[in-house]
Amino acid sequence: MTTPHLQVEDLRVTFDTRGGSVSAVEGISFSVAAGRTLCLVGESGSGKSATALAIMGLLGPNARCRGRILFEGMDLASLTDAQRRPFRGKRLGMIFQEPTASLNPVLTIGQQVREAVQLSRSLSRRSAQLETQELLRAMRFSEPARVAEQYPHELSGGMNQRAMMAIALAGRPSLLIADEPTTALDVTVQAEILSLLRRIQAERRLSILLITHDLGVVAHMADDVAVMYAGQLVESGPASMILDNPRHPYTHGLWRSMPRIDSPDRPIPMAGGLPMRQGWQTGCRFRPRCPHAFEACERDPQILMKEVTVGSACWRNVSSIGAESPSASSPMKENPTDH
Length: 339
Known about the structure:
single chain; alpha/beta
C-alpha cells in the first residue's frame, strides 16, 4: 500500500477568545495520496480553512493545535515554528482564498513572485528574475514581462489568482493547498483556473488538498473527497463513490442544493444553518437539520469514522431510504462551472 503524501490524524484546533475556548476542528483524520487531489468540502464555518492553516503552521497566537500532521515522514505538528519554516514554500505551497487581500498592493507582481523564489531557493537576482518570468509564463500570462511590472490593482481577479499560484509554486512544492481558489471569480475564469491547476498537477506530479464549498469544483477536480460539518468529518471516500451515492444526509443535502444542468428540478436548499461553536451538542451535530434523524442520532456517530478511510458518520444510510443522488457521469462533471 502506498504511503500517503500527507496524513492528518486526530487533528484538533481550538481558539482562545474573550468568551472562552472555541473549538474549530474536532478530531478529524484524512490523507492525501501522492499525485492525487483530495477535496475538503463543507459550508463556510465547517473548519476547512482552520485545517489548512494548521497544516501550514499559520494559525494565530491564540490557537492551539493537537494531533499529528505527517508529511513526507515528518510530523509537522511536533516541530517548532523555526523547524517548520523550511517546509513552507519549499515542500508545501498554499494558494489563499482572497488574492487581493494576500498580495502586497505596493509591490509589483514581479517583485512578489521574485521574493518568493529567492526565499525558497538560493538563486542570484538575475536567475530569480528569469525564474519569475518562467513562472508567470507557466501561469498562462501571454506577456509575463509586462505583468511583472504591474501592481495587483491593475490586474483582474483571475490574473491576481494566477499570480498567487505563481508565488505558491515558486519553491517547487510537492504538495499544494488551495483554499477556495475560485471564490468570487466568474464561471469562465473559474474554469480557466481549474484547468490550469490540473495541468500543473500533471506536469509537476503535485498532490493537492483543495478546499471548497463548490460541488462543481469537486466534480471537476476531486480524486477523493472528505466532507466536514461543524468541525467534524462526516463522510469520506473516492470522489466517484461520493458523487454517485452520498451516504451522509449532510452530503446528500449539499448535492440536492446544487443546480443541475441535467435536471429540470430546482435545487432544494437545506433548512437551518451550522450550530454555534460554543453550543455544539452531543450526538450528531447535523441532527437538528436532518430529515432522517431518529433516536440513535442522540449518540455520537463519529465512532463510525474512527477506523476507516471510506465511510459515513451516520447511524442511518441515506441510500437505504431511497434518496436519489447525482451521477458522477452526469453533464455536471463535464461542465463544472455552469451553475
